[in-house]
Design goal:
elongated; five-stranded antiparallel beta sheet; THD domain-containing protein; alpha+beta; six-stranded antiparallel beta sheet; Jelly Rolls; about 40% strand
Length: about 240
């Protein structure tokens, strides 16, 4: 490109304004690289979108299948628990498990067999011999729990040996069998109270009889609430064929 300018002396001078080829080529190279970079970025974005879409499509059916399997497993577990609960309810309905007996309010003298009456009965037990004998309703293993409360007002100082026992009477034995014997020593200084709780597990046959005998029956405290002081509990544990 030619440039023309007037000088002070009236002469004219021309200057040539030329772009260097190197600069032009550099600009063109930069434009090509910029276009190529943009194209690569667009292609990468499209590729990422395609990959994410494919992965999402593959995961959705698997998630649904897992949810279905989890739901089916939950339903099976629920049905199993319901079935087990129904079976337990059936067993409980068929076999009442516990009978609680309280001591008859009466005056005893010295050694005596204790007499009982029904308190909370959920086991088909019966009482005979004026309440002294508890009849076992069926063959099986039982837990017998016994609570007896003794007391004495203004006693003479010294020691007192409290003794009571549970005896089993059965047609399978010629003589009665003591299945629980309790011995407790009390030191008497003033009015005293003593509650003695014991348990025993024993196998019985249907029709066996159970009696409780105390050598200190005259010291038994039978006043007030009988279920909190003197209690005989019979709990059915299992049938004979279960062990």
């Amino acid at each position: 490109m030619d440039g023309k300018e007037e000088r002070a002396d009236g002469r004219q001078s021309y200057s040539m304004l030329m772009e260097l080829d190197a600069i032009v080529r550099s600009h063109r190279t930069l434009r090509r690289e910029l276009c190529f970079s943009r194209l690569v970025i667009v292609m990468l974005l499209i590729t990422c979108m395609v990959v994410c879409g494919v992965m999402y499509i593959q995961q959705v059916p698997g998630t649904k299948n897992r949810e279905i399997m989890s739901t089916e497993k939950t339903n099976e577990t629920s049905r199993a628990f319901q079935t087990a609960g129904q079976e337990d309810e059936t067993v409980d309905a068929e076999i009442p498990l516990v009978a609680s007996l309280t001591l008859e309010h009466r005056h005893y003298s010295g050694k005596a067999n204790l007499t009982w009456k029904g308190h909370h009965t959920h086991l088909n037990t019966t009482l005979r011999d004026s309440g002294e004998s508890l009849i076992i309703p069926q063959d099986g293993k039982y837990r017998l729990s016994l609570l007896i409360t003794y007391w004495e007002k203004d006693p003479q100082e010294g020691q007192c040996l409290l003794v009571h026992e549970i005896t089993k009477y059965s047609d399978s034995y010629i003589t009665p069998m003591t299945i629980l014997s309790v011995h407790e020593t009390v030191y008497k200084t003033s009015t005293w109270y003593k509650s003695v709780f014991t348990e025993v597990i024993q196998v019985f046959n249907e029709g066996d009889r159970v009696k409780v005998q105390s050598e200190n029956a005259d010291l038994i405290d039978s006043a007030g609430q009988p279920g909190t002081k003197n209690l005989l509990t019979v709990q059915f544990l299992s049938r004979l064929q279960d062990f």
